């Protein structure tokens, strides 16, 4: 989209290089602090519209750094995975575009929480990063449980199923959060999908025309 390209150029000088490194490091720090101060510490970081209105404005940003797990082993794996995905997307897209993708996704999460009045977390935002990576690198292999080699496209199928399941069966807040995360994904990959549909339509039309010509040729041959 042209307006996205223009926005990229405008924010280029303000874009944060190696953004995912800082997010991963701060998430790791929050995890360590939560081990010492417990769940009460984490509860002060979630995006909560009601508490923000009471003056706890830091929650607008700190919810991004909520750890995805309370398991040390899982958090190490998850943060490494986030860093790998984020770093690769930044290399592929460039720093401004990656910043846009992440911060528009974060803003969408904020909007979803405000609309539903619910507590916001970065879960769906991070899952949308995974979808972006899998779309660009479908054949990239990761070691599931550090043992089983699996291509990203197959993990993406599970991700898509999770989004669909959430939208169908989740609470209103979960549905809205999932929808806005997917909207961010489609916003950046709209061109890819429209080109795919055009190629599919063109191929179908070509095949239809070819079959029609074959039938016409056979009909004329029979008449002769």
Automatic annotation (TrEMBL):
<keyword id="KW-0378">Hydrolase</keyword>
<feature type="domain" description="Peptidase S54 rhomboid">
    <location>
        <begin position="55"/>
        <end position="117"/>
    </location>
</feature>
<keyword id="KW-1133">Transmembrane helix</keyword>
<dbReference type="GO" id="GO:0016020">
    <property type="term" value="C:membrane"/>
</dbReference>
<feature type="transmembrane region" description="Helical">
    <location>
        <begin position="178"/>
        <end position="197"/>
    </location>
</feature>
<protein>
    <submittedName>
        <fullName>Rhomboid family intramembrane serine protease</fullName>
    </submittedName>
</protein>
<feature type="transmembrane region" description="Helical">
    <location>
        <begin position="57"/>
        <end position="80"/>
    </location>
</feature>
<feature type="transmembrane region" description="Helical">
    <location>
        <begin position="100"/>
        <end position="121"/>
    </location>
</feature>
<keyword id="KW-0812">Transmembrane</keyword>
<dbReference type="InterPro" id="IPR035952">
    <property type="entry name" value="Rhomboid-like_sf"/>
</dbReference>
<keyword id="KW-0645">Protease</keyword>
<keyword id="KW-0472">Membrane</keyword>
<feature type="transmembrane region" description="Helical">
    <location>
        <begin position="127"/>
        <end position="147"/>
    </location>
</feature>
<dbReference type="GO" id="GO:0006508">
    <property type="term" value="P:proteolysis"/>
</dbReference>
<dbReference type="GO" id="GO:0004252">
    <property type="term" value="F:serine-type endopeptidase activity"/>
</dbReference>
<feature type="transmembrane region" description="Helical">
    <location>
        <begin position="154"/>
        <end position="172"/>
    </location>
</feature>
<dbReference type="Pfam" id="PF01694">
    <property type="entry name" value="Rhomboid"/>
</dbReference>
<feature type="transmembrane region" description="Helical">
    <location>
        <begin position="20"/>
        <end position="37"/>
    </location>
</feature>
<dbReference type="InterPro" id="IPR022764">
    <property type="entry name" value="Peptidase_S54_rhomboid_dom"/>
</dbReference>
């Amino acid at each position: 989209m042209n307006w996205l390209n223009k926005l990229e150029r405008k924010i280029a000088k303000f874009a944060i290089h190696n953004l995912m490194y800082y997010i991963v490091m701060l998430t790791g720090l929050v995890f360590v602090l939560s081990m010492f101060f417990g769940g009460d510490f984490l509860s002060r970081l979630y995006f909560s519209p009601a508490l923000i209105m009471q003056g706890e404005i830091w929650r607008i940003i700190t919810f991004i750094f909520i750890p995805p797990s309370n398991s040390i082993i899982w958090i190490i794996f998850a943060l490494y995975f986030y860093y790998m995905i984020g770093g690769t997307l930044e290399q592929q897209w460039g720093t401004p575009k990656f910043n846009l993708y992440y911060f528009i996704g974060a803003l969408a999460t904020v909007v979803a929480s405000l609309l539903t009045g619910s507590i916001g977390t970065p879960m769906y935002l991070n899952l949308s990063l995974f979808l972006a990576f899998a779309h660009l690198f479908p054949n990239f292999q990761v070691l599931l449980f550090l043992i089983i080699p699996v291509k990203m496209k197959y993990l993406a199928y599970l991700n898509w199923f999770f989004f669909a399941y959430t939208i169908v069966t989740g609470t209103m807040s979960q549905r809205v959060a999932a929808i806005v995360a997917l909207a961010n994904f489609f916003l950046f990959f709209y061109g890819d999908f429209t080109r795919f549909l055009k190629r599919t339509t063109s191929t179908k039309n070509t095949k239809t025309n070819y079959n029609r010509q074959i039938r016409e040729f056979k009909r004329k041959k029979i008449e002769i």
